[in-house]
Structures are given as structure tokens and as C-alpha cells.
Amino acid sequence: MTTRRRLSGPERRAQILDATRLIVVEEGYHAVTYDRVAAACGVTRTVIYQQFESLSGLLVAMIDREIEHAFAGFREAVARPLPPGEDPFTHAVAGVLDAVDAAPTTWRLFMLPAEGGPPELHQRLARARAVTRSHLSRITGHHTDPELSIRILHAVADELVRLRLTAPAAHPPSRLLAQARLLSRTLTTR
């Protein structure tokens, strides 16, 4: 007879958040209920209530944990030393694609958000867009219209990440980075 080890509070919380993330990614926010999460974790609803006082609190905790994880990947991507001859935009996109490949479920939450997310999701997404555009403003160079260049690069980076998430076999990093490099020559030349 095998006995299961009882999870600590933080371990149980992580398990609940993982289950919630999976339900959201596979079925959307509307599918998250106390019963669904409890069943996915093999616990009672009471255990979920002990960790999260409300369903919206559970969703916000999951969003906050995942956005922090995505931000960590982004910060690591843009902080890597730039190799000689590589342009900063393509190098940053390469790092972000590495982060996406390391945690695709996390990145799906934000790059392919399900309908019905709480207002906090949209607040976090707006903050993420601002951080990304701030980084892009440092690498676009001097153009007639830097704001437009930043917006275009942001849209390109977002689409490259979406392609990697939705059809990774058809969109290997080498293919995506070739496009990033091509566009970067036009929009980041100093």
C-alpha cells in the first residue's frame, strides 16, 4: 500500500494554481469552478477555499504568478549580452522565443488570452505592453516616427510569439528570427 505525502500549504497552492492555469488555457476562464479545480487536484472544495477566499481571488493569484513568470523570462531575454553583429531586436526576440519554449502554457495565457478573463488580466496585459514598448524604444534608433516604429516592432514580436505558440513545427525559431532580422534592419537602423 502506497501512502501519498501530504502537500505543504505552498505546494498545495502551487498545485491549485497549476490546475487553474490548465483549465483556463484549455477551456477558458468560464470553465474554472471550485469543483473543477478540486477534482483536478484530487481534493475537496474546502481545500480550495482554505487557499483562496473567492474564485476571482484564485484567478487573480494565477494570473499574477504567471505574469511574473513571463516577466522573468522577458527580463532574462532582454538582459542577455548582445553578440557582435546581432541586432538588439532580433536578439531580444530570440530570448523571448526561448522563454516561450520553456513555458508555453504561461505565455499562452497572455499571448492567446481566453475570453472572460477578470479585469486584472487586462491590467496586467497593459502593463506588459508598456514594459515591452519601453524596451523597444531603447533599440529603435532615430526615425521620423519612432512611436510608429515601436508599435510595428511590438506587433511583429507579438505575432512571432503567437506563431511559435500555435504552430511550432511550421514556425521554428530560425524561421521567425530570419523575419525579425529582416524587419529590424528597416526599423532599428541607427
UniProtKB/TrEMBL annotation:
InterPro entries listed in its UniProt record: Homeodomain-like_sf (IPR009057), HTH-type_TetR-like_transc_reg (IPR050109), HTH_TetR (IPR001647)
Coiled-coil features, chain-numbered ranges: none
Residue stretches making up the HTH tetR-type domain: 10-70
DNA-binding annotation, residue ranges on this chain: 33-52
Keywords on record: DNA-binding, Transcription, Transcription regulation
SUPFAM superfamilies: Homeodomain-like
Keyword field contains Phosphoprotein: no
Superkingdom of origin: Bacteria
Protein name, per record: HTH tetR-type domain-containing protein
Species: Actinocorallia longicatena
